[in-house]
Amino acid sequence: MRIRDARLDELSRLREIERAAGAPFREIGMPEIADDEPPSIEVLTGHVRAGRAWVAVAAFPVAYLLADLVDGDVHIEQVSVDPAFARRGIGRQLIEHAAAHARDIGAPALTLTTFAEVPWNAPYYARCGFVVLADAELTPGLHEIREHEAALGLDRWPRVCMRLLLADR
Asked: Which residues form the N-acetyltransferase domain (predicted)?
């Protein structure tokens, strides 16, 4: 699968991927997450223009990753894979691409926040080498992200912050 920078003309497709990737949450009793709106065109545009939006492409984008910079680390804001292309290592390829970007800019780690008990969330990231951070290990930026998530009601289900130190890889 080829990974490249996302383009502005693909933003509607990224929203389609997000909707499709959300559907499995309905099957595990999280319909609110399944029905959540994808990132807006404006949010996606900001990531593309910042050079922190990447797509996995077959004949067309089938997955994407959005990243931000948080307290010196590259923070994975979103990874979504179209379920028709799931279980092929595409998410891992996108994470590896984000890690390469982080190394290029001198960031020591990747971070993310995710659902602790959803099989394709925290357990998946643990298999990719991420470790759960204790509250005392959270940076100010990660605390802010978690507070925002709580305000959105995401803490209805257990959530964790995770980090992948790049020096170890």
From this structure: 1-149
